Amino acid sequence: MLRKALVLSLPLFFATGTAWSQQRSPGKAAATPPPGVAAPPAAPAAAPDELKQKVAQLDAEMFAAFNAKDVDKLTSYFADNLEFYHDKGGLANFTQTKEGFTRLFAQSPDITRTLVPGSLEVYPVQGYGAMHIATQQFCHVENGRDDCGNSKFVMVWQQQGSAWKITRVVSYDH
């Protein structure tokens, strides 16, 4: 029943986007933006361990807000131009995502999210930010018993100075 609640209440839980920039492969030139598209400002380079720690921290903070049912704090991690793709619920924008979280928390006030240990993968996106890939578990009590389900997700984080915002989410395998 958790899957049904998530599908009906939250037609959104993580997206993808294709940036024009690509990491440079040995022997290949860097990709250039399409005509008329300006390159995004370069994000400072971070060591892979440092970047993974930063994204793990952002994940923990964001989902502490989820578990506290603090919709405003939770959605403060999302960019205004958010695209949230959900394999069962389709595509949602920022406003639809915020409304979906509000409905979900009203319908399942005991729902919690945890990151599945060992599942976190982080990849730098040159000149943009990072990709955050992992498996998460959502649980709530139904008929006096824990009802839990795992799903996979990809989040694309954009770094703007010291601020990090999620611009794309893909949530799948529900």
How would you characterize this protein structure?
There is one protein chain. The chain is α+β, with helices and mostly antiparallel strands and 174 residues long. It has helices at residues 2-9, 48-67, 71-75, 94-107; strands at residues 78-86, 90-92, 112-115, 121-125, 129-142, 145-160, 163-172. Strands 1, 2, 3, 4, 5, 6 and 7 form a 7-stranded mixed β-sheet that branches. Strand 6 (145-160) and strand 7 form a beta hairpin. The longest helix has 20 residues, at 48-67. The chain is globular. Mean pLDDT is 83; it is low at 1-31.
Provide the helix percentage. 25-40%
Based on CA atoms alone, the radius of gyration comes out at 17 Å
> Into which percentage range does the β-strand content fall?
35-45%
Sum up the overall morphology in one term.
globular
Low-confidence blocks of residues? 1-31
Distance between the termini: 12 Å
Number of helices: 4
Largest sheet: 7 strands, mixed
The chain-level mean pLDDT equals 83
Total beta-strand segments? 7
Helices and strands, in N-to-C order? HHHEEHEEEEE
Sheet/helix structural class? alpha+beta
